[in-house]
């Protein structure tokens, strides 16, 4: 590892900080991802005397937080808005749509899992003949708007 990528004081860097390469490697990210997050206002690393980014403990926490929120399905713009507020009502306004979106995705995933499990449990040679498959198809086709007869 290059001395400029590890922890400690290196090439004018602050003690206990990480270079962009070291921080990116720690989280399995590409360095351009951290630069993008910085351009969006999600990160604000310090700089050493040479102008190189230096990341401290607060930056590690922020990167971990961004990754957790992304895994929860939040976009970077939403994460930026969320990190910019300390107001409970504003936080709720930001998170409500995200929660509803996640509920919808969970419901869709559960329906998909049900279809797959029904296919695994089906004893028919042709899965389209299974009662659960036929029920799901009937539910799907009955909720569609039917074309007008002319």
TrEMBL record:
<dbReference type="InterPro" id="IPR000551">
    <property type="entry name" value="MerR-type_HTH_dom"/>
</dbReference>
<feature type="domain" description="HTH merR-type">
    <location>
        <begin position="17"/>
        <end position="85"/>
    </location>
</feature>
<keyword id="KW-0678">Repressor</keyword>
<keyword id="KW-0238">DNA-binding</keyword>
<dbReference type="InterPro" id="IPR009061">
    <property type="entry name" value="DNA-bd_dom_put_sf"/>
</dbReference>
<dbReference type="Pfam" id="PF13411">
    <property type="entry name" value="MerR_1"/>
</dbReference>
<dbReference type="InterPro" id="IPR047057">
    <property type="entry name" value="MerR_fam"/>
</dbReference>
<protein>
    <submittedName>
        <fullName>MerR family transcriptional regulator</fullName>
    </submittedName>
</protein>
<keyword id="KW-0805">Transcription regulation</keyword>
<keyword id="KW-0804">Transcription</keyword>
